[in-house]
Amino acid sequence: MKRVVMKFGGTSVGSGEHIRHVASLISNHVGKGYQIVVVVSALKGVTDDLFEASEEARSGNRDRVQRLLQKTTEKHVAAARNAIENKPILEEVEQTLKTTLDELEKVLTGIAYLGDLTSKSKDYVLSFGEKMSTLIVWGTLRDLGLNVQYFTGKDAGIVTDSNFGEASPMMKMTAHQVMQKIEPLQKKRIIPVITGYIAATQDGEITTLGRGGSDYTATIIAAALEADEVWVWTDVDGLMTSDPKIVPSAKVIPELSFQEAIEMAIFGAKAMHPRALEPAMEKEIPVRIRNTFNLENAGTLIVKEQKIKPKDVVKGITLIKDLALVNVSGAGMVGTPGTAAKVFDMLGKDNINVLMISQSASEANISFVIHGNVLERAVSTLEIALLGSGLIREVSAEDDVCVVAVVGAGMKGTPGVAARIFGAIARSRVNVRMIAQGSSELNISFVAKETDGEKAVRAIHEEFKL
Ligand code: ASP
Ligand code: MG
Asked: Cα separation of 409 and 277, whole Å?
């Protein structure tokens, strides 16, 4: 019997009808003999609303908080009513929703009174989204006659550090507890239905695993139970060779390695957070991304060892926009150890994330790429700190650039890939500003003018016939 952790998110739990659809999908798989653990993320848009409600509460905007509460209430009540047919089950779910929403209101009122929102209290507010969505999925599964049990991530045994807002699981303890709490149910043919995204510290304080963290919950649970597979059910067919809005002929990637998936995620293919892949990668548990609205499509399978021979060395191409390129130069940098350290230390202290770095062998300049919205801050930080030092003569910047990242494990040790990439974009008359290839050879990234980005992606997609 196959043991699969199935996670549902996005529009797949966007409304009551969709939840009903998801529940019958689960029921069908149970009928086929799958042993399933269900993980649910918040209804679409709810986490954002809770986020806003907590901020508005801190600022004391009670009207705005009330309106957001109203919206959240209506969304969940409507979803429950559309998903659950059985009257007593619906009543029970509605009653629990009401108690939960009352508690949420009290928490927000408390924040408004104090005018104080800590990362701890924010996580507490954010945890309500998954509590309510999971409750509705639980009720719907019961309505379909399945034997189910509701768990919060905390009750399921996920223990994290106290880095509220982006907590990390303590895997040993978590694995032990999840095994103890969840495993026995599986033997009794009870389906555990677990809230994604939320967990708790050792002291029992509610934490969240970071935005998009429900996928992480699924892989943590799977790793703990040593499940056979993780299926991430969503509203897209899987990971694509490129953004179909840019390349209309983009296709679903049938299979890729964990390394490649992480690389693509880092470069903005928003399918899964790289952190979420780690527990599965460590235990070599395959992760499948599937579309609840297109069951015919097998989706994307992420595995350790690929069985399908890739057609070519390149798997996918992503484009990151709204970036800026900064160039730090000066003859004083040549042969002076510690210049790069100073530059990146300043940026790090200023909480500025660097996407790409390059230094020419002449050492007379260092270039790096950052997000456009922190450009001004970065430049002034560097100017204030370094211009007077004699090391650096100039800090210049361009804010109309993009990064194109070409990903594929097959590039490793294959000569000529870079030549094909840059040949293709040269023929499209795209000028390259900066190039970087990590020594992992899993990706080649380059900087071009923002207006050339899409053209470059199309040219490379065409060259590798993806
Ligand atoms: N609800 C959380 C979020 O929106 C977690 C998730 O959806 O995976 O970030
Ligand atoms: Mg979400």
From this structure: 17
Which one of 13, 40, 41, 233 would you pick to mutate in the ligand 1 pocket, going by the greatest count of ligand atoms within 8 A of its CB? Answer: 41
Q: Which string of b and e fits 194-212 if b means at least 16 CB within 10 Å?
A: bbbbbbbbeeebbbbbbeb
Write phi, then psi, for 291 (nearest 5 degrees).
Answer: -100, 120
Tokens 């026995």 correspond to what residue?
184
With beta carbons less than 8 A apart as the criterion, state whether 31 and 256 touch: no
Contact 202, 155 (CB under 8 A): no
Segment 139-171, tens digit of pLDDT: 999 999 999 999 999 999 999 999 999 999 999
φ, ψ for residue 370, nearest 5 deg: -135, 170
Task: Please name the residue whose Cα sits nearest to atom 8 of ligand 1.
Answer: 212
Distance CA 422, CA 424 (A): 5
Spacing, Cα 271 to ligand 2 middle (Å): 12
**Contact 151 CB / ligand 1 (< 6 Å):** no
| CA-to-CA dists, residue 371 to 289, 353, 368, angstroms | 29, 8, 10
Q: How is residue 344 written in tokens? A: 């990146």
**408 CB within 6 A, ligand 1:** no
Lookup: tokens for 155: 């009750």
The protein residue whose alpha carbon is closest to atom 9 in ligand 1 is 211
Res 367: pLDDT: 93
If phi > 0 it is left, if psi is from -120 to 50 it is alpha, else beta; for residue 351 that is left
Specify whether the CB–CB gap between 18 and 47 falls below 8 A.
no
Q: What is the pLDDT of residues 345-384, one digit of tens each?
A: 999 999 899 989 988 777 788 999 999 999 999 999 999 8
CB-based contacts of 113, cutoff 8 Å, min separation 6: none
